[in-house]
Amino acid sequence: SIPSATIERLPLYYRCLDKMATFEETEVVSSKNLGGRLGIPSTQVRKDLSYYGEFGRRGVGYNVKDLKKSIGKILGVDKKWPAILIGAGNLGRALINYTGFSKIGLEISDIFDNDLNKIGNRVGSIQVKSVNKLEETINEKDINLAIITVPSDPAQEVVDEIIEYGIKAIWNFSPTRLYVPDDIFVRNEDLAVGIVSLIYHLSWKIQN
Amino acid sequence: SIPSATIERLPLYYRCLDKMATFEETEVVSSKNLGGRLGIPSTQVRKDLSYYGEFGRRGVGYNVKDLKKSIGKILGVDKKWPAILIGAGNLGRALINYTGFSKIGLEISDIFDNDLNKIGNRVGSIQVKSVNKLEETINEKDINLAIITVPSDPAQEVVDEIIEYGIKAIWNFSPTRLYVPDDIFVRNEDLAVGIVSLIYHLSWKIQN
Ligand SMILES: NC(=O)c1ccc[n+]([C@@H]2O[C@H](COP(=O)([O-])OP(=O)(O)OC[C@H]3O[C@@H](n4cnc5c(N)ncnc54)[C@H](O)[C@@H]3O)[C@@H](O)[C@H]2O)c1
Ligand SMILES: NC(=O)c1ccc[n+]([C@@H]2O[C@H](COP(=O)([O-])OP(=O)(O)OC[C@H]3O[C@@H](n4cnc5c(N)ncnc54)[C@H](O)[C@@H]3O)[C@@H](O)[C@H]2O)c1
To answer: Which domains does chain A have, with CATH numbers?
Structure first.
């Protein structure tokens, strides 16, 4: 089985190759050069890619466009991934308006909220729906992916409901641990951990 | 030296103890119970805390309020941390309006942008300033911490400038690798890595 650290480096390789293919004339790149741009040792680059097959030629390097395409296929970002977002608040709106997600195939098709003041409003080009329409939308559009930007208290309840309707993968921004069946993927983004670890280092630096 | 994985678990213990102290009557908690709420083995909880001293009594457990206070002190979240935010766009506005950061002492005091249409507008209770005022603000208010929510292209330039003015720690949301001197702390939040790894797992599940 492939280490999760390897899986998490693939998007970094993909973005770097995408930038090279878009902004530079570079046709071929070595593992040393690709790694150097990301602060990753060249041995690690070769090892990560070896889990997925043979890429490039020894001593020559990798063809930038080919490798980008191969990694894109491995990641699945060459396909379209319709998703729903629940919680049309501050963070939800920022995610909906972000143009960067379309490059990886994420397409937020519907937005849900339980606040009567928000239902019916538009965020970007999408109209906020009531949570009463969750079952109908998930079934009609065969949605597998949900983004959770509700407060932590209702998060578990919301997630239980959408799993019942068929959601298979959850991108969770609420700072709470979600209990889900084994066949459901959950990715937690806990922004507070990032800023607190920064404060921790700054605080220790100042004390010493 | 303390492993970064340990440092990153401390905010999770802190938040869990904070919830217990606020919403429950629980006075004492065992490492097994505290770990159980977070999906962390009790041996790991004890090991993490042992880096920072003796807490609780063997066989009895930890006093919830005392342990929360001790971890808060270790993390530095019992102090106030004034910060500036650069890039008053979608994500910047969501971060500014978030009430959860005040619990950990983060206080965004000033917001900057280079877009004439944004300068002078209010986000929450703060008025957006021109980037021309960065040096003056960082020096006058002795700010150490900056949040970067500009696009990736200008990010390095912005960071070079604020380090020159005395910024010591950077919370970076732009999807690009920042080159900074060794004494500067940088924490990168790369939201794309989270969603792409979710798509990766969903895609492989569907293929098999
Ligand atoms: N904004 C940030 O910068 C930030 C940072 C870190 C973490 N978070 C986390 O992200 C989540 C969203 O934060 P925010 O700042 O956008 O909050 P917010 O209060 O602005 O938005 C939350 C939205 O969820 C909706 N909601 C509440 N209960 C619901 C339910 N049962 N079903 C459907 N919708 C429901 C609310 O009506 C609101 O529109 C929170 O869990 C927060 O802790 C946000
Ligand atoms: N919004 C999201 O959900 C999201 C998700 C992932 C990553 N990001 C990253 O976060 C960053 C912000 O994203 P966003 O969606 O808020 O973008 P945005 O375009 O809405 O906001 C960017 C802001 O930065 C300002 N800016 C540009 N150059 C500047 C400079 N040199 N100095 C000061 N201000 C400058 C712009 O005027 C604008 O207000 C980007 O790097 C983006 O890739 C955002």
So the answer is: 4-74 (1.10.10.10), 81-193 (3.40.50.720)
Between positions 116 and 155 of A, the ones with CB within 8 A of B are 144-145
B109 contacts B143 by C-beta, under 8 angstroms: yes
Nearest to B86 by CA among B61, B111, B106: B111
Sheet holding B106-113, edge to edge: B122-123, B126-130, B106-113, B81-86, B145-148, B169-172, B185-188
User: Using an 8 Å Cβ cutoff, are A203 and A180 in contact?
Assistant: no
A201: chain B residues, CB-CB within 8 Å? 169, 185
Angle formed at CA B130 by CA B126 and CA B135, multiple of 5 degrees: 100
Query: Does residue B208 surpass a pLDDT of 90?
Result: no
Determine phi and psi for B90, rounding to 5 degrees: -55, -55
Between positions 39 and 78 of A, the ones with CB within 8 A of B are: 39, 74-77
> Which amino acid, one-letter code, is at A109?
S
Q: Out of A8, A97, A144, whose CB is closest to B202?
A: A144
Can you say whether residue A87 is alpha, beta or left, with left for phi > 0 and alpha for psi between -120 and 50 degrees?
A: left
Q: Which residues is A86 bridged to in the sheet?
A: A112, A148
Query: For A62, how many CA atoms within 13 A lie in the half-sphere containing its CB?
Result: 28
Beta strand pairing status for B81-86 and B106-113? parallel
pLDDT digits 0-9 by tens, A49-89? 999 999 988 888 999 999 999 999 999 999 999 999 999 99
Output the CA torsion sign for A201, A207, B1, B7.
Answer: negative
Cβ neighbors of A175 (< 8 A, separation 6 or more) are A152, A190, A191, A192, B15, B100
d(CA A193, CA A87): 21
pLDDT tens-digit map of A123-161: 999 999 999 999 999 999 999 999 999 999 999 999 999
What is the torsion angle, in degrees rounded to the nearest 10, for the CA atoms of residue A69, residue A72, residue A73 and residue A77? -140
Q: Hey, what are B57's tokens?
A: 């009594």
Element spanning A172, H or E: strand A169-172
